[in-house]
User: What shape does this take?
Amino acid sequence: MDRELKEFFRSLVEAPSPSGFEQPAQEVYRKFTRKYADEVRTDVHGNVIALKKGKGKLKMMISGHADEVGLMVNYIDDNGFIYFSPIGGVDFSLLPGLKVDIYTKKGKIRGVVGRKAIHMMEKDEREKAPRREDLWIDIGAKDKEEAERMVSIGDPITFQLGMEEMPNDLVLTKATDNKSGVFACGALLKYLNDIEIQVNLYCVSSVQEEIGLRGARTSAYGINPDIGLAFDVTTATDHPNTNKKKYGDISLNRGPVIARGANINPAIYNMIIETAVEKKIKYQIEGAPRGTGTDANIMQVTRSGIATGLISFPNRYMHTPVEIVSLRDLEEAVKLGGEFIKKIDDSIDFTPKI
Assistant: This one.
């Protein structure tokens, strides 16, 4: 991966963006895409839409969601300890002992998630996962009054920022779900920068996916595309204690994952597979028998329906502070998406056939 793209990815994953508070990451996306798009705009919901104009009439929406899971300040007790609510799906058993960042009007404040020490727990407490109300955040305040001068109810909280490179082109961050998809949308514009395409390409960094696919709903309604393609992460099964009979066989560094099923238009699926074979791009297939938990789900059923596809990146330890993806998979997904887009013109009929 070239230096510009790697720094783009790093800037995205290090920008705080819990659902409803995505604009730090959106600013990274705006800044990058202005170099490669004909138009970049932000709608009232906070979605950022970068358009590359094509020569034809068809409109295509590509989407990756910028929001990540996190926490929110919910209550401050008399001793200055902070209690929180989850933003999206958070595993509370992973939180004790973590460093977190609280984003306030005055700037970022560091805290740690506290829990009663193991020496003080009864046997049954040690054997059970903690409840949310059993945990708190310690910011070093001496009492409630001091804490309230530092933070406010509703302030968003993220796990500690950072990105670390690992062997075999792997990277460790808190938020590859789904800054990876946002990266792909921006990187596609760079991939297609000097290429004339037929389809009008709307590359969307959407908001509030983790709390109900909300940004994809509003942006798809506004764009009213003929074709949709979502980029998101999917759960990798290449680690211990995973039932591949139940979840399938998905591994890092084996290429992007192409979804097949009710959420996916058959013509788009076939075109993506054909493109991968022609360009010798490694790929994996994921069965999706019903609506997926991605922007592809909502795009497909917008207005009178959109022909939709889904390309995913294997992700270990999803919705934790230590998510791992492969930069190699990301690069291959961008190439696959770009070569697929180059094939689209006004003559293609995406109506399902026998």
